[in-house]
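Input record (one chain):
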Amino acid sequence: MSIKMRHIIAGVLALVLMFGMTDYTGGIAGSSAVAFELNKAHTYSDVEAPVILGYRMSPTAELVGIYTLDPEMIKALEAIFAEDDQKEESADHELSGAETESIETEMTEDVTESESTEPESTEPETTEPETEAPLPSVYDGIAVITIFEDYLNVRAAANAEADLVGRMYPGSQGTIIEQADGWYHIVSGNVDGWISGKYVVTGIDAENFLQEHNLDTRITVATPELNVRSQANADSECVGYVWGNDRFAILGQENGWYLIEFAPGQRGWVNGRFVSVGADLGIAMTMAEVAAYEYQKAMEAKAASVGGVLRGATPATEEEVILLAALLRHEAGSTNYAACLAVANVVINRMQNGYWGTDMRGVIFAPGQFQYVNDGALDKWMADPGAVCIEAARDALAGINNIGDYLFFCSPKSAESRYDTFTVWVQVGGNVFYKKN
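The corresponding structure, as predicted from the sequence alone:
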């Protein structure tokens, strides 16, 4: 039945009700208990009743009773309703496809509009808690090698067959240029090449690795109390304090200030004027630098083997090397390396002192110093001073020193008559080396 028809009938029935054509039998209050009964057989709920019979004065009016209609009127109404419904059903089947599509489109638009105008929910929205982004690491873009023994080769290309261009020793680092096939292209010191990623950490992993193995660069607070600032300047906010002799890893550096983590998860800047700084990580070496480095390490080990130390090298010509070796053969013999080394260092100490001359020949041939040398005693050894003497001469000139700053030596027998002239001395081989009181 059309809505228009239902409204007309509702109006008619309202007039009928007003003029007493119905029998009021109610007294039941409340919309949930009210209904219109049609001939005791058809009951229309309070949802349909307002449309059919119009008994409410407004959509919000309360339903207050039950009404029964005359049986003949009921039949007439039922006939009208049935005929109207049949017409509407017949008309629905005659709608064209285009008209149906149009209706469906309009319905869709209505639904969309209805959904868009629905009041927003007042329910509180639940969102995932924001996760604070991790702070950048000072080692982002930095490759730190993880080996503790030997070294890591740096190659000209990203494969193990490429030419060597350098080496990285434990604790070394390099700036990452690119990555390819499990290799890192790095620049470190004078080296530009590729290293295997199997032995590299970077970023926060590098921080953790260096801290775990005590290899990271650190600062030590050198004042009883030091402010920690939010930025790398004295005008920024003070966010904490650190105390004398506290040590921290350096996480960044800017304008003479150092970024540190002064408490778990808390970072800030300290003034570099009030801290001492540890050594930086090592850098890669070219193959030429590697040769010099390994020579240095070998010489340090050799010096330690004879109870000595390594000092700065003394320049000498090959002729001066042979002259010194001949003197060692003359004064200490040809078999005792440590004894020959000690005599060579007396010559070098005197050169540095300057009293006997500043060059090797002047010191060796100074009057009254080395016995018989001015009488040609060295001539017979100049042609072949012996391998041990040449080795000792070269090592002493390279910096191996096993007698410190002693300037004199003599035989043990001569020393017995000279003990009143020195109190500090050491015997090496067949000679006593000493300093005069």
